[in-house]
Amino acid sequence: PGASHNTVYRNLEEFQDIGLVELSSQSGGMVVKYRCDESHHHHFICQRCGRVQEIQLPTIDWDFLTQQLPGAEITGHSFELYG
C-alpha cells in the first residue's frame, strides 16, 4: 500500500524488459498483460469490450526498415490493431 505510482510503473517497465509482462497503451491508459509464452506475437484489441486476440502477421523485412533509418539500431517493436 505504501508504494508510489512511480515505483509501480518503474517495476512494470523492468518486468517488460525481462519478458514477464507486455505493456501497451489504450485510450484509457496503460494495459498490462502477463506473458504466457516466449514467442513474439501481435494483438487485436476490442475498444468496446477489451477482448484481446492474437493475430498473425507476415514476416517483417528488417533490412528494408533499417535502410530507412541510417545510424539507428532497432531494438524492438510493437504492433497492435484496435477496433
Commentary on this structure:
The chain is of the alpha+beta class and about 80 residues long. It has one domain (about 5-80). It is built from 2 helices and 5 strands, in the order αββββαβ. The protein has helices at about 5-15, 60-65; strands spanning about 20-25, 30-35, 40-45, 50-55, 80. A hairpin with a 2-residue loop joins β1 and β2 (about 30-35). The radius of gyration is 15 Å and the shape is globular.
Q: Which labels suit this protein?
A:
83 residues; single chain; 5 strands; alpha+beta
Number of helices: 2
Classification by helices and strands = alpha+beta
Uncertain regions spanning at least 5 consecutive residues: none
Question: In angstroms, what is the radius of gyration?
Answer: 15 Å
With strands numbered from the N-terminus, the spatial order across the biggest sheet is 4-3-5
**How many distinct beta strands?**
5
Give the helices and strands as they follow along the chain: HEEEEHE
Q: Give the rounded overall mean pLDDT.
A: 81
End-to-end Cα distance: 35 Å
Strand content: 25-35%
Fraction of residues in helices? 10-25%
Number of domains: 1
Shape: globular
How does the major sheet shape up? 3 strands, mixed
